[in-house]
Amino acid sequence: MSLKGKHIGVAFTGSFCTYEKVFEELKKLTEEGAIVQTIFSNAAQTLDSRFGNAKDFVKKAEELTKVAPMLSIPQAEPIGPKGFLDILVLFPCTGNTIAKLANGITDTPVLMAAKAHLRNNKPLLISISTNDALGMNMKNIGLLLNAKHIYFIPFGQDNPEKKPNSMIAHTNLLIPSIEAALDGRQYQPIIQ
Asked: What residues in the chain have per-residue pLDDT under 70?
């Protein structure tokens, strides 16, 4: 399947340690000819970390996609009524965002984008990045694994010795995961 001309939303949450890989994959999407709309959570657009400055990440996203990022709930809400995305990817998706999504909380631009997009029965793809996937957040991941129109980029433990509950998506599987989700399928195997 070609992604040329596909309208793909890429929603950033605060897992800053993954941004380098996320931007590599974002570049590949644009090279494939996808039309990419980025959305930034409140944390992603305001918090600086040892991995970089928030304003630089927002600027880099706009430079790569040639489209201004959505930075507010009112900007993200029209995703639903206008239906302009073929797929939305939460990339990366923190445990906090997973928990809120699983429990119907819509208090950030990313969560509004997800809610708005799902009302159109279109695929939502999650790239998990959380230190408590095998802890308190497992129940939320389980809920989302069983939800209609929600798919996951395959994931696994990233450091079982030092962080035994932590799991992270294999971001290099973004494009095949998008292709499968657009076909209504979960890319397999989901846990690697």
From this structure: none
Count Cβ atoms below 10 Å from residue 83 Cβ, excluding itself.
15
**137 Cβ contact list (under 8 Å, min separation 6):** 95, 98, 99, 130
- Any alpha helices (H) in 13-66, and if so which ranges? 19-31, 42-46, 54-65
CA proximity to 157, closest of 169, 147, 146, 148: 169
Q: How many CB atoms neighbour CB 139 within 10 A?
A: 10
DSSP 8-class letter at 17: G
> What pLDDT is attached to residue 24?
97
Residue-wise DSSP of 79-114? HHHH---SEEEEEEE-HHHHHHHHTT---SHHHHHH
Which one-letter DSSP state was computed for residue 72?
S
Nearest to 174 by CA among 117, 111, 92, 112: 92
As a three-state string, the secondary structure of 143-166 is: HHHCCCCEEECCEEECCCCCCCCC
